[in-house]
What does this fold into?
Amino acid sequence: MNTTLGFFNWFFRGLGGLGGWIIFLILALAAVIWIFYDSAKRNLPVLGWRLGAVLLAALIIPSIIFRLSSVEIIVSLTPFSEAIFYLGLLGGILPVVIAIGYYVTYKGLVGCRIGHVYEAVLGQCPECEQPARRMDYQDQYVPPAPRPMPEPVAAPRPSKPKTNAWFIDQSGRNYQLCQGETSIGRSSTNDIQFSGVSSISRQHAKVQEKSGRFYLADLASGSGTKVNGQFIHQPTLLEPNDQIQFSDNVIVTFVTTK
It folds into this structure.
């Protein structure tokens, strides 16, 4: 009880009469200003975090009024001094907690001009990027030889829904993974094609997506599949920034957004 009373007196009259509440006010303002500055710098749509920090910081206002008002107002507010004291503590501490939660949630993320949030390592928003035309890897287009009779054209495969995960090769080209299963190989029937690389098998590997987690499996390919330099022999859980090697000259990095 004596400890609480001592802290109560320090909160309103400590620091040479100024009051320890000033420290809690500085903490609250620092947390609010940092959230506004950082989210604006990274273009993050975090209105809820901003409002939360501001409203919680406002809990310290009664302490400021109680300490800086005239004697008459202080006397009238004295019956509520204990509640004002606890509100002041919360007003200084909770915005800091909000700032920590914001930092953990949006670490490594940035936003685009229309509000999409993505990993900064991607360099540009994958949702806004125009889908690039799929071309054969390390191969030039060769026009087909003229045929005397036209052959029926096979209907194109339906496009699979995509996930927020990509393989990025050493030249910066990215391959977006599909929901469910993504097939990888030299054959044109695969979702990710490396048709110009003879060391990659026709059906080389696959990625299975389960509840937002991605498992890579080798399909008994000729050159094998490595994750972080180690051959895999069973489905392997991929973590962000894992290096995957399908052949000596095809190495990609696994990237996913939260």
